[in-house]
Amino acid sequence: MENQSLLELLERLRNRRQEGATVEFKTNLRDAVEIGQYISALANSAALEGANRAWMIWGVADATYEVTGTNFDPFATKVEGNQSLIMWLQRMTTPKADFTFHQALHSVGTVVMLEIHPARTAPVAFQNIRYIRIDSHKTKLGEHADKEARLWEVLGQKADWSGELVAGAGLDDLAPEAIEMARKRFAEYLVKSERDVERHEQIRHEAAGWDVPTLLNKAKLTKQGRVTRSALLLLGKDESAHFLAPADTKISWVLRDANNATVSSQHFSLPLLLSTDRVFSYIRNVTIEHMPDGTLFPTAVQQYDPWVIREALHNCIAHQDYQLGGKINVVEHPDRLVFSNLGQFIPPSVEWMLVHQSPPEHYRNQWLIDGMIRLRMIDQVGSGIRRMFQTQRDRFFPLPDYRIDENELGKPRVEVTLPGQILDPKYTQVLMKRDDLDLRQVLLLDSVQKRRSISPEAVKELKGLKLIEGRSPNFFVSAKVAEWTSQKGHYIRTRGLDDNYYQQLVLEYLGKYKQATRNDLDDLLRPKLPDVLDEAQKRNKIKNLLQALRRQGQIHPEGPRSAAVWKLGAELV
Asked: What is the DSSP annotation of 61-99?
């Protein structure tokens, strides 16, 4: 903006003789954190008020509205290790706030005018906290539920694209094999939700007898027998994808080599309920040594946990903004898997999800999510991300990486990377030793091993726990773990091995010998169970391992309970 235009705008704002929801006057405020909070509050207030801009102005007294001039220079100000204030403010806001600093040359002195565009796709958060203006006061948005609900409605998140009925589409546009898979999955959901074990067979029998309209209505995929977009996404025939245009309903799998060159690719369309298993079958989940020195964990494991892969893929389906016209991508590198989808990440941050352990108040595709829960594609809302992190931690692998940004066309995008290798052996050893760390602390430690910056408060916390050493910005996982390694053999014997290891032993035994009594399996597993368990606990552990395999359909017992023999499930024979 030209200087004269800025001065004319300044006079209009001053003549209002009040600050209000979209204007803030300051003289020489320099606190970067407070400036960031104001950006969040003013961007959100502008959206709520329907204003096309909000303004924060330095060089005007907020009591008299007289021009005083300011010596605050946003273009020269540095923060946190010589970073540019403007770039730092951009980095600290989610989604990235749209703002511009201007300098107006007034006869009294320089006036700095911060032009802030309203929030567009989601409320703007600063350092993972959303703010709002109440009159002329800045406060946390979460403390004002009514305003938060209205803001989400203004931003278009109240309308649920996934729950809309599809004109012209009928049950004949759904794939019969997908419907039968939905019947099986929904019956499993109902059985899992029923505590009375004696009712399980009755539930399965009832589900098998429902006609298709009844099944899909109960599974919350259709509405009174009418097809929703969710029903088409999950169960639709490939040739029915045109009903969802311009949404791109494909999942692309791309295999790349160490030089990032494409080696192979496949594209999968409707029905997504079946396509996810097809995508999964293409991923090369190779076996690797679990521990970096080859001795701490004397067995090999898969590079990726299968549940984590499926959760990441199903999250892409659940949270994709289909109105943006982008497809879901799964890119496989030699050392990592990368999942991406278009759409704003609606929770304040990943860290917020880990700390609060509860779902956010709003979801983009609520009808689709409800249906996917009933088809057992995703966990109950809010727990999936935390379980992904916890699973990686339990495997002593680096945590998932979330990248929340925009694609080359400026559309919001979420990318999740699953590391498939150990980056820092000491990080793994810390996790083995310190099972008292909460997920937030593990996340901070994970950032250190990945050579990422952490806040001064986090540095102080991790150093207090003697988990990291070094000086900013070159922190590293503490060498103190070296004194723990002499106990690693004892630790493994005490902790025991991963359940997947024990279950694999059972499957290999049955694959070779075709059947086994409970005594056979006791003899197989008891010597390998942790020393800390007594005999009764070991028997119970083995029982739980067998029941878990039975529920998964991988094994089953035959004969009376007292003399039953275990055999492989039909799919494994």
From this structure: -TTT--B------TTT-EETTTEEHHHHHHHHEESPP-E
CB 306 within 8 A of CB 504: no
Q: Which of 1-10, 59-68, 159-168, 447-456 has the least mean pLDDT? A: 447-456
Token reading at 534 = 């007594």
Instruction: Return the structure tokens found at 442.
Output: 């593990």
pTM for this entry: 0.65
Query: Do 292 and 425 meet the contact criterion of CB atoms below 8 Å apart?
Result: yes
DSSP code at position 324 = G
Higher-scoring residue by pLDDT: 395, 357: 395
Report the share of the chain in percent with pLDDT over 70. Answer: 91
Which two three-digit tokens encode residue 327?
A: 């497809």
Question: Given this model, what pLDDT does residue 298 score?
Answer: 47
Q: What is the pLDDT of residues 118-130, one digit of tens each?
A: 998 788 999 888 9
User: Concatenated DSSP letters for 172-205?
Assistant: GGB-HHHHHHHHHHHHHHHHHH---GGGHHHHHH
Q: Which residue has the tokens 């990945």?
A: 450
The angle, 0 to 180 degrees and rounded to 10, between the axes of the packed helices 518-525 and 499-513 is 130
Strands (E), 13-167: 23-26, 54-58, 78-79, 83-84, 93-94, 99-105, 110-116, 125-126, 129-134, 137-140
Question: Closest Cα to residue 290, out of 434, 420, 480, 441?
Answer: 420
